[in-house]
Structures are given as C-alpha cells and as structure tokens.
Description:
This protein is α+β, with helices and mostly antiparallel strands and about 550 residues long. The chain has helices at about 30-60, 65-75, 80-95, 95-120, 125-155, 160-185, 190-210, 225-235, 240-270, 275-300, 305-325, 330-355, 360-390, 395-410, 460-475, 500-510, 515-525, and strands at about 1-5, 10, 445-455, 480-485, 490-500, 530, 535-540. The strands form 2 sheets. Strands 3, 4, 5, 6 and 7 form a 5-stranded antiparallel β-sheet that branches. Strands 1-2 form a two-stranded antiparallel sheet. Helix 11 packs antiparallel against helix 12, helix 11 runs antiparallel to helix 14 (about 395-410) and helix 13 (about 360-390) packs across helix 14.
Amino acid sequence: MDADDRGAPVAGVPPAGAAPALSGTWAPLALSTYRWLWIAQLVSNVGTWMQSVGAQWMMVHEPNAASLTAMASAAGLLPVLMISLPAGVLADVLDRRRYLVGVFSAAVVVAGSLAVLTAAGLVTPLVLLMLTFGLGVTTAMAAPAWQAVQPELVPRRLIPAAAALGSMNVNLARAVGPALAGVLLLAVSPAALFAINAVSTVAVVGALLAWRRAPEPDRTAEPLVSAMLSGSRYVRHAPGVRRVLLRTGVFVVPASALWALLAVVANQRLGLGSGGYGLMLGALGAGAVLGALVLRSLREHLSRGALLAVFSLVYGTALLGAGVMRTPWVLAVLLVAAGMGWLVVLSTFSITLQLTLPAWVRARGMATYIIVLLGGQGLGAVAWGLIAQKVGVGHALVGAAALMALGVLTQLWWPLLERTGTTDPSVDTLWPEPELADEPDQRDGPVLVEGRYVVTDDVDAFIEAARRVGLSRRRTGATSWALYRDLADPSLFVEVFTLPTWGEHVRQHHERLTGYDREVDTRMRAYTAEESGARHLMLVAE
C-alpha cells in the first residue's frame, strides 16, 4: 500500500517508487483493486444495458409506444430524485464496501424477480415499469457510494484517468450490451436478458467481497439527519460545485431526448428491428469509448469551457440528425459523434467534482450531481416522450437540438468557475485545539464561535477576503456567519459564526477543513496584525 499525492493510504496502489505497468488513460488498471472492480462493473453494466433494451423493446409494440418507451427509460432514472441524497449520507457515514455489497445484493433479487415473472408471462407494462423503478432505486442507492470510492482506489494524479475509465466502462457496455441484446432478441425472449442482468450483478458483489478496504480512522459516526443537513450546506455554499450542477442540468435535459426516443426512431422512422436498434445504441457507445480514449489529449489542448461548448454542439448536431435523417448509416455516424460528445461533456463534470469534493462530503456531493444527471435525464425523458406524442418524434428531436444550442450559449454568462477542481481538498488541521474548562457533550448546542482581528492594511480587501472565509465556515458546518466592525475602534473586526451542536464544531475542526480552507483563511489574515484567539460560547438560555 502506497500513499496518494496527499500522503493518505490508497488500497491497491503499488509500493512507493514502482511505476504503473500502464500509462495514460489505462494507468489506473495497473492497480489490482481498481482493475477487478472495473471489470466487475463492466460485466454488470453490459447486463444493465441488455435489460434496458429488453424493457424498451417490450414497450415498442404497445399502444402509445413513444410515451411508454420514454417512461421505461425514466422509471430507471427518476428514483435518484428521492433517494440519491439519503444514499449519499449513508455512504459517507457507513462503511462504503459493506453498504455497496448490501445494495447490489438487493439489485440481484429485483433483477431476478423481473426475469422470473417475465418468463412466466406475468409482466404487464405496469409491472415492468414498477420493477424497472425498483432497479432504479438500487442504482440510486449505489451510485453515490460507487463514485465516492473511486478516489480511494487511485492516487490523486490518476483521478482524471480513473474518471475517464469509469465513463469508458459505462459506454463500452453501452456499445456491447445493446448490440448483444438486439441479436439475442431475435432468438430469445426479454426474460433471458433480464436473467443475464441478474447474473451480471453478482459479479459486482463478488468483487466487492474480495476488496480488502483500508480501515478508516476512528471517529464518531455523524447522525443521519445532521449529515444530510451538513451535506446540503456544503453544496449551497460551494459556488464552484453549484456551477457544475447547473451546467450538467443544462446539458442533460435536451440530451435525454435522444436516449428516450431512439427506440421509436429505429422502429417507426427507420423500419429497423431489434438488432438495428441495438446497433444504433452500440454506435453511441462506440463513440463514447472513442471519446474516453482521446479525452486526455483533448484536455491538454482545449480549455474546459471549449470542450463543453464544442462537444455539446456535436451532440446537438446528432439530435438534429435523428430528427430529420431517414438513412440508417448516416444516423449511425452521427450517433458515434454523439457518444463522443456525451462522454467528453459528462467526464469533464465528473472529473471536476471528484477533484473538488473533500473526503468527508464526497458521497453527498456526488449524490447531488447524480440527482441532477440522472434526475434530469429521467424528467427529460418523460417530457420529450409526451412532446413526441403530441407533435411527432422528429419535431421533438429538432426542438431538443435547438435547446442544446441555447444551452451552449448560456456558457457566456454561467461558465464553470476557473478554480473549481484545482484547489486542495485534503484534510488540513487549520485551527488549534480550543481551550475549554469542560468538554461539552457532542449533542449540546448551538455553539457560537467568535474571533477578533486587528486590520492594519486595506480594509476593503480584508472584508472581501473575509466573505470567502464566511463561505468556508458555512461549507464546513456553520449555519450562520457574520463580520462586525467595532464603532469605537475601526481597525477591530469581530467574526462570529454558529453551529447547531458541539459535535458539528468538533467535526469542523478535525475532519472538514481542507487545504483550500487554509488558503482563504491565510489570505484574510494577511491584512491583520494580531488576533486575540477564538472564543467558544454555548447557548444556555433565550
């Protein structure tokens, strides 16, 4: 076991000084734990895509096919709106390995039930939607924890490569799974695809059981409600994270039209069978794999803003083509480009967040991203399905392409913030231990913390720097923050912030402050001559 770039132990990393056997995009696969989990995830993702194709193909032959196929797509995505944030809380406060084993075991049961009921001829469109929703629940439960463990498996310098490989995994499965499902549907019923999905999920359970996760430092488990509130506060007071979420939503809502309506395009507009639909999805997946292979080079030559603009427009062109083209091979070429655009855009968001979020809130932060990503796709799928039912599939896709172009234009006003993903998220013990007469109970509160500063130079710059410190205090647990100026001594400023409990402040001290928090704190103190030290006050009456 070696240390990552911050000195924290990382499971599966070769001894210090040992160069990975692979380089570039493939380097994380030289780490054994990451490699086996990646392979297991690939097997499971192939099964998931086969299940998705089987479900959508069953709906294609029903009345109101456009809305039903879109609902089948949405049923697997919408649970993230209700479940992802609580799932992120659980992933941050529980052992992530054991948690994932439990969730994926539940997914095996649901997928197996779908296979058995379908084989018995008991699956109606309503039953199919309900069981697909159940699989979506397990996906929503697992996704934040799965995203959060990735930085545990590789050193920080390999996080961009690991994120690209993670996206490649999903999209390689997207290339193989639908094509394989389309071929199998010529010979077997969808029940066989559902059974394959159940078996493939067992591979993930096995890989997780084989993972020997490094023990975490002893710490008091954060109460679930408190953890959810603190995670929400972090996102609310992290402008860079909020901007990533905004850009994700602006992209995925129009982009979801292609995933929701492609089955109808293949069947009704192009006259293709299940095999042709599988190949169309395979073209999307192949393009995404190509995008993963060239992502590192693209990131070296283009800024993040340029990547997002160019490849969003590439995807929008494919949306337009799907709406107007009637030649299958031309559309297949456009779908390859769309897959590449999908991978590049979403990998850019994922990499940025994984490099930004500190360990204590990583799963909760990724949960909010997953809510926007998959929830946006799910709601978008429902909306585009209903629009297609009213105005036609072609017009709906053209409208989505126009909305995508409009979204690209909004980058002029709402780009990704420059420093997001470049700051230090490692834990930093910024403050000295408080001097107390008696240690309060962890549940006591609220707590008010007061600091005094004598400002000797550029008061306006100090106040601006202090505002950034205020965001830091709120991100790490404070429910309120304020800065006051002494009317008798204009050089004296008093900072006050409150936390709901003493336990929250202890976690702020030892688990939540990062290198970036130290940076903004040091910048503020550069304008001060002296500090009297912090005072800690406990509410006793009001």
